[in-house]
Hints:
heterodimer, A: mainly alpha, MetI-like fold, 2 domains, 14 helices, 0% strand, B: mainly alpha
Amino acid sequence: MTDTDRQEALSRYRIKIQPGRILIWTLLFIGGIVMITPLLFMFSTSLKPASDVYDLRLIPAHPTLSNYVAVLTSTGFVRWFFNSMLVAVSVTCSNVFFDSLVGYTLAKFRFRGRRFIFLAILSTLMIPTEMLVIPWYLMSANFGWLDTYWGIMFPGMMTGFGTFLMRQFFEGVPDDFMEAARVDGMNEFVIWWKIAMPLVAPALSALAIFTFLGNWTAFFWPLIVTTSSELYTLPVGLSSFAVEAAIQWEMIMTGAALATIPTLLVFLLFQRYIVRGVMLAGVKG
Amino acid sequence: MPSTVQTSKGAAQGRPEGGGFTDRFSMRTKRLFWVWTFLALPVLFYSVIRFYPTIDAFRLSLTDWNLMNKPKFIGFENYAKLFSDPKFWQVFRNTFAYLILGTPISLLISFTVAFALDRIRFGHSFIRALYFLPFLTTAAAMAWVWRWFYQPAPIGVINDLLSSFGLMQQPFLRSTSQALPSIMVTAIWAGLGFQIIIFMAGLRAIPSTFYEAARIDGLGEWAILKKITLPLLKPTTIFLVVMSSIGFLRIFDQVYNMTTNDPGGPLGSTKPLVLMIYQSAFSSYQMGYAAAQTVVLFLILLAISLLQLWILRDKK
Lengths: 285, 316
């Protein structure tokens, strides 16, 4: 909210109301409404009984939660939701821990092989996931990882993008902080965790947001590695459910809404951090 | 990883000795010990989960393998087969159609919105949120919403709207010429929010003194846009062109979910390279052939990344 306050304070002395600006504002607003139209229709239809699906009014004439009850009780949605949450949270924690640990080591220590390791990790950014899925699939088949949580998670436990991002931020942290802690006799792990990590909190939140979102919406690899419905993540489960539901659009919209609601809630709560995080990651990364 | 062993041994040897010089020496070895403790698991991870599979993909691309037989080395036959397959060239054209149409359209829209949004103060973060929200959605889920939008008249929202204005019904996903653009719109829609945010960050980074100086010189809005804003935004634009190009070249989720009854259809008119890879590997189990396709995808993406580096270097 302070963001808007500041902007409004700025506007008082910088801009007078002009007809051109009102036109721009109106056009932007209409464009914004068009952007969320699919979401509005999705929610609206999810609240309609099957008999009203062809009535395309946005406000449901006979609103009902029966679709939600049906989807949540008679399909694997609750399980898929749990699976997605488990996978996304685990992978996010792993990335926040390891990417920043490696980023910190590469930024703050001088040792033989530092440049080599940095370039090696950076070079993984050039390799598309699609090229690795076949070897990963074979590897998973050999180790018995197919159709397991670990199988879904292992490819993303660390990422070159995250490591690079964190290295950039740790480079900006002055060495004095760490030196002082060393004089106090702290060991290097504690220095990293207790001293360095809090100093890059904004970068960590950016990394966490990106990793979570990426894993929450991931489709390609979970589609390949999971075969039983109990292990499906939400996008894979939704896709298989939609194929079965065929033309029951109100059911499909309910499923899509259930997949969308969590990220929308998180966004509404943390809008400023998320937008700033996207800017940070985009500009630095 | 022999160095891990060496350094930890070194730290153990350094510890018992005292004295100023060896103290500093042991400091260094102790720190090296920590470095390799921190890096041990990541080095293992990147070796096993990133580098080995990369090499394995190249190796597999030179074999004939359907998971049942023993992998047989066949040299570049998979590539020869791929390049003489008219289906591959259709997929190749489709993939680049997504890129060549999608990237300029989405960048043009996102720049226009970002440029306008940057001047708006009233309700700024509300309007920004409207544009940004689709970026947070799950592609697989929204593909179904759009698929519903594209249905014929009594069901589909868009055709319903068209008929209420007395306009012609459109086949959208059922037509070989309209299906690809229809899917592309879904992908553009989902990516706009990200591009707008990055463009706005780029616009904010331009010092206001530049604009003030230009106004003093009497430049008009249009001239300012052409002479100051766009040139200074070049790194941002290149970044977004590359990100968007890579995104379109790897398109899969939307196509898969919008054409489930005939993946990549109608008549293969929407099939991108990643879907072809998926089908070769996991529907017909031609692992070697699929691996060769992934190598082709890799080379295309590599070329684009190198092009970006080259353009950015040119600028410095």
